[in-house]
Structure formats: C-alpha cells, structure tokens
C-alpha cells in the first residue's frame, strides 16, 4: 500500500459522484486524514455561508455563516464530510449557541486540534442577531483561547 493510499484510508465520501445528504444531525459522517506537517503550527479556515438549523421551539429555520478556524494537531477534517455534517443541522432543532458549541466539540473530538474556534453569524430574527463563539486551546494554546474568546466578540 502506498503512502497516499494509507493517508486516504477512512476517507470514503470524497470522490463520490452521488451523495445522499443526511436528514438528521450526523456527527459520524465526519472524516479526518493525517496532518503531514505536525511540526508546523498553521491555521486552517472554513467559511460556511449557508448554514441552516431549526429553532427548537418554533421549528422556523435559522440561517448563519459559520466560520471555523483551527491549528491542526494529528488530523485534519476532510472538507466534503464537513459540508455534509453541517448540512445535517438543516432539520436539527437547537439554539444558535448550542449549534456552535456542538460543532466545536465534534470537531475537537475528531481532530484533536491544538486550537479551534467556531463562530456563528446568524441572520436576524425578530430584529435581533446572535453571534455565538466557542473555542478551545490545548495546554500550549490555552492563553490564546482565552484571549480569542473576547476577540471573537468582534464582528
């Protein structure tokens, strides 16, 4: 087995021409691959402008832009699986703050990043916008996580 074949083990969604989209919250759909540069600290950013979830009380749709930044540890998230995972919130009823924290915790569990942050920029409903921000830093990045928590308040 070649090095590339080894690295791609467990990456099943990428390259499929027809994909069934999950109809309910699906954290198990997330896939990861090895970080080829674990000795480097670098930032990976995902900008997801079409996130949708449901209000847990009314069932009305909520729309947001989700921004994910992370410094990889041993693994990185595969982007197609992330897209399908975020789509799985479409019929999921949770408050904005819950969605952002769930996303951050699921990605933290999958990748074991050195640092991760998830920001939700939700469109207004009832004249109010909500911008939840959740983050985590390992021992080397705990100070940065604390500082970024307050920096994350900036839009």
Task: Report on the architecture of this protein.
It contains four helices and six strands. It is about 25% helix and about 25% strand. The protein has a single domain (about 35-150), classed as GTP Cyclohydrolase I, domain 2, CATH 3.30.1130. It is α+β, with helices and mostly antiparallel strands and about 160 residues long. The strands form two sheets. It has a four-stranded antiparallel sheet, sandwiched between helices. It has a two-stranded antiparallel sheet with strand order 1-4.
Question: Based on DSSP secondary structure assignment, what is the total number of beta strands?
Answer: 6
Would you identify the regions where 5 or more consecutive residues have pLDDT less than 50?
Answer: none
- In helices, the fraction of residues equals 25-40%
Distance between the termini: 47 Å
Overall geometry:
flat
Q: Kindly report the name of the CATH homologous superfamily.
A: GTP cyclohydrolase I, C-terminal domain/NADPH-dependent 7-cyano-7-deazaguanine reductase, N-terminal domain
Written as H for each helix and E for each strand, in order along the chain, the element string is HEEEEHHEEH
The CATH class name reads: Alpha Beta
Give the DSSP E fraction (strand runs of 2 or more residues): 25-35%
- CATH architectural category: 2-Layer Sandwich
- Write the CATH fold name: GTP Cyclohydrolase I, domain 2
């Amino acid at each position: 087995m070649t090095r590339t074949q080894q690295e791609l083990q467990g990456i099943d969604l990428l390259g499929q021409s027809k994909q069934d989209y999950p109809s309910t919250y699906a954290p198990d759909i997330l896939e990861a691959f090895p970080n080829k540069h674990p000795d480097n600290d670098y930032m990976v950013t995902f900008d997801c402008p079409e996130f949708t979830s449901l209000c847990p009380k009314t069932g009305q749709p909520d729309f947001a832009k989700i921004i994910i930044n992370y410094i990889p540890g041993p693994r990185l998230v595969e982007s197609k699986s992330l897209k399908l995972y975020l789509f799985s919130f479409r019929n999921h009823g949770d408050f904005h703050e819950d969605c952002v924290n769930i996303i951050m915790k699921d990605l933290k569990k999958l990748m074991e990043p050195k640092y991760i942050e998830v920001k939700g920029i939700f469109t207004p409903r009832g004249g109010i916008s909500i911008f939840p921000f959740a983050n985590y830093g390992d021992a080397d990045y705990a100070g940065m996580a604390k500082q970024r928590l307050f920096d994350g308040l900036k839009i």
